[in-house]
Amino acid sequence: MTTPAVAALKRALPQASLTYVVEEPYHRLIRGNPDIDEIILIPPHQGILSFLGFIRRVRREKYDLVIDFHGGPRASRIAWLSRARLKVGYELKHKGFIYDIRVPRHREGAPVHSVKNHLNLVRAAGIEVHEPWPRLNFPAAGKEETERIDKLWADRGLAGAKVVVLHVGAGNTFRDWGHQKLGGLTGRLAGLLGVRVILIGSALDAPRAEEIRKISPKSVLSLAGELNLAELREVIGRAALFIGPDSGPMHIAATTSTPIVALFGPTLPANFSPWQARATLLEKPLDCRPCKQRKCQTEDFRCLELITVDEVLKACLPYL
Question: CA-CA distance, 279 to 256, in Å (whole number)?
């Protein structure tokens, strides 16, 4: 969701050289992005010597501007130690001294979408940002990645089918719709004429996907843990519909033309809806939403539990 801000930055300053710092597992999200001139990879878990070496590299570049889109402990330290002429970041507790310009991430009573938050950081640096807002950018899959999905489509007889991609993971308990409801929805969808269901998720979600597949029609396919991020986007892009919670795959789906049915529990669409996507958003108006996802006040995760299989299926049918 930072890519519209990067695009706006490049659009305003076409001669600028833009370097993007990203953790290694996620570089595929931006590799090949035409707005980015250089990518610096850092390991997810970095020792002190490695971090100091990285800071020396950053300082050698003598950057004019550093924008901290993340605001986490390591990201803020990088901004602080970069020696950039101008440092821009969010107004965060105990970190105000780090940035030359600070932007509120939240406004009381007026939620701001994450994409617009990132655009606001660019604007705060004195760079003009004009509508229309840029779309999310995910570079196309490479030749080998595309060929692998071509083979999958042919081998599994998916050509001509209405493919539904269902994300069975959640990231945490608060965003988990539940094994039983996911299984119930899978069975209902797979029973529709011409529909094929593909279950996706991380390697940690693979056991759940297999359990759902075992109690579903044989036509249901699990690809949980088998796709890289570009292949995942390629699969979603060929589908008739994507279904899932507020999650990384949902935002990857928003970079395609595939419609989305998204389930929102502890988070709000006002902050995290699929950006500029054709989507149906399901949520329940509860006073405890949004929450920090540390402890459920009602102890029953009702924000998602109250969303029924029938409601989700009804939202899916117009797209199928």
Answer: 12
Nearest CA to 169 out of 132, 224, 233, 117 is that of 224
- In the numeric block, the tokens 């029938």 are attached to 310
CA dist 221 and 286 (Å) reads 35
Tens digits of residue pLDDT in 3-46: 999 999 999 999 999 999 999 989 999 999 999 999 999 998 89
Backbone φ and ψ of 302, nearest 5°: -65, -20
**Structure-token match 């980015």, residue found:** 36
Q: What count of other Cβ atoms lies within 10 Å of the Cβ of residue 159?
A: 10
Per DSSP, 175 falls in state G
Cα(133)–Cα(11) distance, rounded to whole angstroms?
A: 11
The Cα diameter of the chain in Å comes to 61
- Is residue 250 within 8 Å of residue 272, measured between CB atoms? no
Which domains are seen in the chain, by residue range?
3-124 (3.40.50.2000), 143-319 (3.40.50.2000)
DSSP state of 21: E
How much is the pTM? 0.93
Determine the 3-state secondary structure of 241 from DSSP. strand
Alpha carbon of 33 to those of 38, 105, 122, 148: distances in Å?
A: 10, 26, 18, 22
Mean per-residue pLDDT over the chain, rounded? 94
Token digits of residue 88: 């821009």
8 A C-beta contact, residue 174 and residue 299: no
- DSSP structure class, residue 234: H
Q: With H, G, I as helix, E, B as strand and everything else as coil, classify residue 94.
A: coil
